[in-house]
Design brief:
The chain has a single domain, classed as NADP-dependent oxidoreductase domain (TIM Barrel, Alpha-Beta Barrel). 41% of the residues lie in helices and 15% in strands. The radius of gyration is 18 Å and the shape is globular.
Length: 288
């Protein structure tokens, strides 16, 4: 897949309950501007339905990724093989497509992967043409095990200025095995942007970490700070694309323009890495 370096993450539009007309404008304007990666998941509330309704008629213009695993709406436990089969079919119906380009196992544990049943379901989906590629979305030791299986085509994992543990082991392993890498949360949810702890608990861990890291570049202009954070993530060896979620129809184009400054200065990249190594705690692990 010839993916653009900046993709769209579909969590916010579903979980935040964005109006359909907003999502329709957001996605179509982003595709018009060159976005060709749309990543979602069955557990992102209405995300799959809205994506399918808004842009399924433009199927050839973008690569479509989704995730499976959490039994949202099914009276079966997470990771039950029958539930996964039903879920995959439901995702295709919601997205209004016959196949996705990438089907990912969504943050399950190594213990679940070791049983083999979950992997068999996504392999079957690939063999039957319901997905072109299969991937694992997750972090830490679970991601290491997923890579070591040699089964997956793609890894989606957290990579950003507040989440660098992945850079020392996981990304080099993925590169060595020729996996595509999707960076999630590539700007650390811009958790610093208001100067106050974010409302969402989902962002609190990065807020705490950044409070200790005290990067100089976060103290200045917000646009430049976000641009620096984003380009740091894209500079990491192995990162193929980074997905950013938004509910603002103008935001994707604004994010894309941040790349106009070109690659981040290697000296600044090293400064950010050095600061992480000096400050990061042992428990600053990858955030799902």
């Amino acid at each position: 897949m010839d993916v653009a370096v900046l993709g769209f993450g579909g969590a916010e539009i579903g979980i935040d309950g964005s109006p359909y007309k907003t999502v329709e404008l957001l996605l179509n304007s982003a595709v018009d501007a060159g976005m060709n990666v749309v990543d979602t998941a069955e557990c992102y509330e209405t995300s799959e339905e809205m994506i399918g309704r808004a842009i399924s008629h433009r199927r050839k213009d973008f690569f479509l990724f989704t995730k499976c695993g959490h039994a949202s709406g099914f009276d079966l436990p997470d990771w039950n093989p029958r539930m996964l089969e039903l879920q995959i079919e439901r995702s295709l119906q919601r997205l209004r497509v016959e196949y996705v380009d990438l089907l990912q196992i969504h943050s399950c544990s190594q213990a679940i992967l070791e049983k083999g049943e979950v992997i068999e379901v996504v392999q079957s989906a690939k063999a039957s043409g319901r997905t072109r590629f299969i991937g694992y979305s997750g972090d830490g030791p679970n991601a290491v095990y997923a890579i070591e299986t040699g089964i997956f085509d793609v890894l989606q994992t957290s990579v950003n200025i507040a989440d660098q543990q992945v850079l020392d082991r996981v990304l080099p392993m993925a590169v060595a095995r020729n996996l595509g890498v999707i960076a999630k949360r590539p700007i650390a949810n811009a958790a610093w942007k208001t100067g106050k702890q974010p409302v969402s608990e989902y962002h609190h861990e990065y807020w705490r970490r950044l409070g200790e890291l005290q990067y100089d570049f976060l103290q200045g202009d917000l646009h430049n700070a976000v641009s620096t954070a984003f380009r740091f993530t894209l500079a990491q060896p192995g990162v193929t694309t980074a997905i950013v979620g938004t509910t603002n129809p103008q935001r994707w184009a604004e994010n894309a323009r941040m790349l106009d400054s070109g690659p981040l200065d290697p000296a600044l990249i090293q400064t950010i890495r050095d600061r992480w190594k000096a400050v990061a705690k042992q428990d600053w692990v990858g955030q799902n």
